[in-house]
Design goal:
Layout (H helix, E strand, L loop, with lengths): L2 E11 L6 H20 L5 E5 L6 H13 L3 E8 L9 H6 L4 E5 L13 H6 L2 H14 L5 E4 L5 H22 L1 E5 L13 H8 L2 E5 L1 H9 L3 H14 L4 H5 L1 H23 L4 E3 L14 H8 L3 E3 L4 H13 L7 E10 L5 E5 L14 E7 L5 E7 L5 E10 L4 E11 L12 E6 L3 H11 L4 E5 L4 H11 L2 E5 L5 H20 L1
Parallel strand pairs: 1-2, 1-3, 3-4, 4-5, 6-7, 6-8, 8-9, 15-18
Antiparallel strand pairs: 10-11, 10-17, 11-16, 12-13, 14-15, 14-17, 15-16
EC number: 5.3.1.4
Keywords: Arabinose catabolism, Carbohydrate metabolism, Isomerase, Manganese, Metal-binding, Plasmid
Pathway: Carbohydrate degradation; L-arabinose degradation via L-ribulose; D-xylulose 5-phosphate from L-arabinose (bacterial route): step 1/3
Amino acid sequence: MTYSNKQVWFVTGSQHLYGPKVLEQVAADSELIVAGFNQSEHIGVDVVCKPTVKTPGEIHAVCQQANADKNCVGLILWMHTFSPAKMWISGLNELRKPFMHLHTQFNAELPWGEIDMNYMNTHQSAHGCREFGFIGTRLRKERKVVVGHWAKQNVQTEIDDWCRAAVGWNESQNLKVARFGDNMRQVAVTEGDKVSAQIQFGYEVHAYGLGELAELVNQVSDQDVASQIDCYASEYQISDELFKDDYQVEMLKNEARLELGMTKFLVDGEFGAFTNCFENLAGLTGLPGLATQRLMQNGFGYGGEGDWKTSAMVRIMKVMGQGRTGGTSFMEDYTYNFGARDQVLGAHMLEVCPSIAAAKPKLEIHRHYIGVKCDTARLLFTGATGPAINVSPIDLGNRFRIIVNEVEAVKPPAELPKLPVANALWEPKPNLSIAAAAWIHAGGAHHTAYSQSVTTDMIADYAEMAGVELVVIDEDTKIRSFKNELRNSAAYYGLANVL
């Protein structure tokens, strides 16, 4: 199990109409399905089989239990037989955890020569799930519907995607973001309503003065700094010349101290994400570079220039993608390559997570020129090739929007010997011309959460759980229809907020 401390409950609906023998088979079939999920390499969340619910009271009780159980992140609901949907009204109205409607049946193929009415009554998911589907729609409940035989890989992968989104939503509900300093001055998109964000997404955002962090950084012992540098030497490529230069060694010690101090601050305060800003560095030796990269590599979310929305999104997506190939990083669309194939070179001043690196990163010390001019240790690498997504959560004033652009990361056509920061090169879908125009129409930020382990569907599921607008820029995007989609979404969410 990738998430050993998180559970998704599997609840099967039926009724007493069919008698005890049918209910025994319903319970046995449910247990076999759950056992199959837990033995599958395609599902990384612990699925827990709950007793079959047969009455409004049992349904209401299991929904209340799910709400109260901190390890339960969501429910998979399946109707093995016909479960009259009025029984589900009170339970679904109280359920505060996300749920998936699994539209499957126990047997894959029909035993044509043996089918009788007992078989039909016992195996009538095709019938029962439609009744259940109606009440979900009637109650206006957002939910995922997965259709297909439960043992097939594509169905299990879809289930896992949703389960990961549910774990991400659970993280969102419990996340705390620490802000060291304020937002970059005069920048619009990194601002936002923190109260509205907490109401919508659940996470808390707290600001701290630099002095509080500097105090912990200054308390780090020389012995701990030396041990940390040994760790760097074992994990990254470092030239022998660096260790022969006392000045460069001192710069490396600065980063070790920053990392250890920041780690203690975040761990002690139970923070899962943080921001800082190059304009607010009083008491620190400089803008953390290697320190921030390693904190991200260890699972913390990060946003530059005080971008708390992106910081939270990076952390949530790191949790979603846990155990999968590929990483997640804070990213920025930095500059374009208008060539045979238009491309985007993504980077940031210092802070790109090595979880996306194509090869073992190099640790080097270079001059940092923005905010404070000083030499700073950082990891240099180029991102791995392959499919990826860029995700931008923005505050539109009356609602939040999450924007996704699907991209294909590629290898740079030439070396970048003078670029002193980590980077990734990608080709946006459907192409840069349409993707950039659509991104701008949607109001997407220059900062993103970039990931090769999280899929568009997972972000779509998360957005549904949060009740926020999602717009996707992909291979099928056309500007005219995309602008209409934005207009229609504005009308829908405006009306939904009123209602």
